[in-house]
Design brief:
There is one protein chain. Helix content is 58%, strand content 15%. With 134 residues, it is of the alpha+beta class. The strands form two sheets. It has a two-stranded antiparallel ribbon with strand order 1-2. The protein has a two-stranded antiparallel ribbon with strand order 3-4. Helix 2 runs antiparallel to helix 3. The radius of gyration is 24 Å and the shape is elongated. This is Zn-finger containing protein.
Length: 134
């Protein structure tokens, strides 16, 4: 059975990040539609069905170049949000060890070790020196 499925999927695009996002969004809409009655609930339900159909259309599509371009656009749009979230999480993890300052000249973020007292910080971008307490 597995070999038949693999032969069926040859030349087809398959699953990617956009398809996964569409599936999770459809699942979320289905769950929300369970708790909402009336016209709004049915609109959410049919919206989830459309997202699932779109996802399966993309998975079984033979036009791989177009699906790849769609996924690249999706990654470009979401990349800024994901990297910003990742940077904030990393900043929170390092908050115990490092202190962050902004250069008064170019606004570049500079990381220095905590607990060193008053230190002279040199901006790596514009080479401006400023004194701060770490």
């Amino acid at each position: 059975m597995r070999e038949k499925f693999e032969r069926f999927m040859e030349g087809r695009y398959g699953m990617d990040q956009l398809s996964r996002f569409l599936d999770f969004a459809a699942l979320a809409l289905l769950i929300v539609s369970l708790f909402i009655r009336g016209m709004a609930g049915s609109i959410l339900f049919y919206g989830a069905v459309v997202l699932i159909l779109w996802s399966y259309f993309r998975i079984f599509s033979r036009n791989t170049h177009r699906r790849y371009a769609e996924n690249e656009r999706f990654l470009r749009l979401t990349g800024k949000f994901v990297s910003n979230f990742s940077n904030r999480r990393c900043h929170q993890e390092q908050k115990k060890i490092y202190k962050y300052f902004y250069c008064p000249g170019c606004k570049q973020k500079v990381r220095v070790p905590k607990g060193k007292g008053r230190i002279c910080i040199t901006c790596p971008k514009c080479r401006r020196e400023f004194v701060r307490r770490s």
